[in-house]
Amino acid sequence: MRPENATKISVINGDIEFRDVFFSYAESKETLKGVSFSIKQGETVGIVGSTGAGKSTILSLLMGAYDPDFGSVLIDGRDLSSINAKSFRERVGFIHQKPEMIDGTILDNLMFGVTDGRAEILTDKDYLEALRKVGLGGEEYPLDRNIGESGAKLSGGESQRVAIARVILRDPDILVVDEATSAVDTVMESYIHEQIRKISKGATKIIIAHRLSAVVDADKIIVLDKGQIVGIGSHQELLESCSQYEKMAKIFFAGA
């Protein structure tokens, strides 16, 4: 629970730490068991593991949807529970596997999720420039184009590009990429990650990945297995030191 006097913030440096975090859902078995790691401002970090390993739980704790049973989640050295949840989430950008689209125009969807303070200073030129950066420029993508209910008039790839443009406009301090490329082909996957590298260059980036190709260039990769960390390091380091990661890599790249 957040205290009534939780501190509102307007900017985040982007240092993140999980300190000996234990967590379980209701009466289920522990989902996270003593998880500890740190991420420095501006780092790109991948989180990998099989289904049920704890990847989504880490994301839920990071976003304050739950508090740890034991241990702490720290942002810039401050316990997340002491930070006003709304002000924190306004400094975080998301790119999901299935980005949320609303029934309306391209402009409506670009504005969706952009904080009030940012929306007040953005102009049509800014929105069009964001579209151009993700390859949706030109007459085919006017701001007043209606994209239908849940973006039905856009392809999956176009929806992802609108979502990336939305993040560009949001200008977050922390960027979370949650399985964003698991349902697209390799060409679109490469494009999406090229754009992710370009946007919010100073932001701390966390990539929760199903495909190892999404994280091989990360500064470091956290490997989860049954709620515990079994390896932390670069792609090459983990190939040499973490048997779980080595197995994942052999299976993935053999089928790539």
Structure characterization notes:
This protein is of the alpha/beta class and 256 residues long. It has 9 helices and 10 strands. The strands form 2 sheets. A 6-stranded mixed beta sheet has the order 6-7-8-3-9-10, sandwiched between helices. Strands 2-1-4-5 form a 4-stranded antiparallel beta sheet, covered by helices on one side. Helix 5 (124-133) crosses helix 6 (156-170), helix 6 runs parallel beside helix 7 (186-198) and helix 8 (235-241) crosses helix 9. It is globular and about 50 Å long.
Straight-line N-to-C gap? 44 Å
Which strand order do you get reading across the main beta sheet? Answer: 6-7-8-3-9-10
Please report the total strand number as a whole number.
10
Q: Strand fraction band? A: 15-25%
- H-E order: EEEHEEHEHHHHEHEEEHH
Architecture per CATH nomenclature, i.e. the level-2 architecture of the domain at 96-171: 3-Layer(aba) Sandwich
The overall pLDDT, averaged over residues, is 88
